[in-house]
Amino acid sequence: MENIYSEEQKITRSFKSSRKTIDFLLSYSQSFKVVDCDNHKFEVTLN
Questions:
Q1: Cβ proximity of 9 and 18 under 8 Å
Q2: How many domains does the chain contain in total?
Q3: 17 or 7: whose pLDDT is higher?
Q4: For residue 46, is it within any domain?
Q5: Position 33 in a domain
Q6: Residues 6+ apart with CB under 8 A from 34
Q7: Residue 23: what pLDDT?
Q8: Residue 10, domain member (yes or no)
Q9: Per-residue CA distances from 39 to 1, 12, 20, 26 (Å)
Q10: Which residues contact 16 (CB under 8 A, 6 or more apart)?
C-alpha cells in the first residue's frame, strides 16, 4: 500500500460542469441550514 501512494501521480483529469449543475449546487447550499437545539443538531433543507 505504501508503494501505491508514495509514487507521484502523473495523470490529471479535467472536468467541466454544466451551468445547470453549478446553479443546482449553489441553490441547494443556500437552502441548507443547520439548527442547534440543546445538544442536538438538525440539518434542514428549506424548499
A1: no
A2: 1
A3: 17
A4: yes
A5: yes
A6: 41, 42, 43, 44
A7: 93
A8: no
A9: 40, 43, 37, 29
A10: none
